[in-house]
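Q: Convert this sequence to C-alpha cells.
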Amino acid sequence: MSFNHLMRPKALVFSLLFILSIAMTITGCGPSANMTLNPADKVIEMTKGPCYGNCPVFTFTIYKNGIASYKGERNTDRLGLYVKKLEKGDMERIMAEFKRANMWQFRDTYRGRIPDMQSVTITYVEGTKKKTVTGKEIRPNAIKWLEAQLDQIANNNEGWILKEAPAETAPDYLIPNELIVELNEGVDPEEWAKKYIHSDMLFEKQLADSGYWIFSFDDSLIIPEEMLEQVRMDEEVISAEFNKSIYNQLDEKEKKEGTAKPAAVDQQEKKK
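A:
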C-alpha cells in the first residue's frame, strides 16, 4: 500500500490505524494480550483441589486492576488459562465481601474429618497484609460464604478469553496424590504418616504382601513433586515413587502369586 504525500493528516492517521488493526489480527494479538497477569497484583485467589470424585480442579484469581484469571486443570469445561475483565460492580462487591468477612480472625488451616472431601484454599491480600485459609468441610461459615461468592463469578461463562492452552497432563496411569514408599524395617506406616500432617498424608494400605506401603496426600496443599522429594529425603525411607493405576490393578493378582514390587525398584534390582 502506498501513501499520497498530499494526503490530509487526518486521513493519513486513519489509514495508519487501519493497517495497525490488521497487523494485530494477523499476529494474533487479541484482547487477552492486553490482560497482563502480574503475581504481585493478586488481591484474591481461590484454589480447589482434587477429590475422589469428579470435583472441578481449578485456580481462580482476581487482580487489583479488575482482571480475573481461571486456570482449569481437571473436571471443568474450561481447561487451560482463561482471562477476562470483571464488571466494575462485581469487583466492588467481592472486595466489600472480603473486607466484611475479616479473614484475619480465622486460623490458617482447618483439618477435615472426611478424607475424600475437596480442599479449598482462599487467599486475600490487603495492602502489605496477606491471609490464607485452607480447609475442607470444617470451615467458618464466613469463609464458605466467600467461596460461594467467588464460585458465582468464576462459573459465569460470559467473557472468558483463552490465554494459554492446557499443558500436557500426566499419563493416566500415574496417581499424583499417592506414593508407594518402602520404609525401614520396624517403622510403623501409620505413625510415620503423621510426620506429614501438613499435607494431609494418610496411610492407605500395604502393596500386596510386601514391604511397600501406599500413602495418599492432598496435592492442593503441596506440589506432588515436592512431596515426593521430601519423602525420598526422609531418613526412615528406603525408596519412594508415585503410585500407578497398574499397581492397583495387579495388587490382587500379586497377593495370590507373590510379592508385588514397583517396576522402578524391580528394574534397579535386576541391574545389581
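The radius of gyration is 25 Å.
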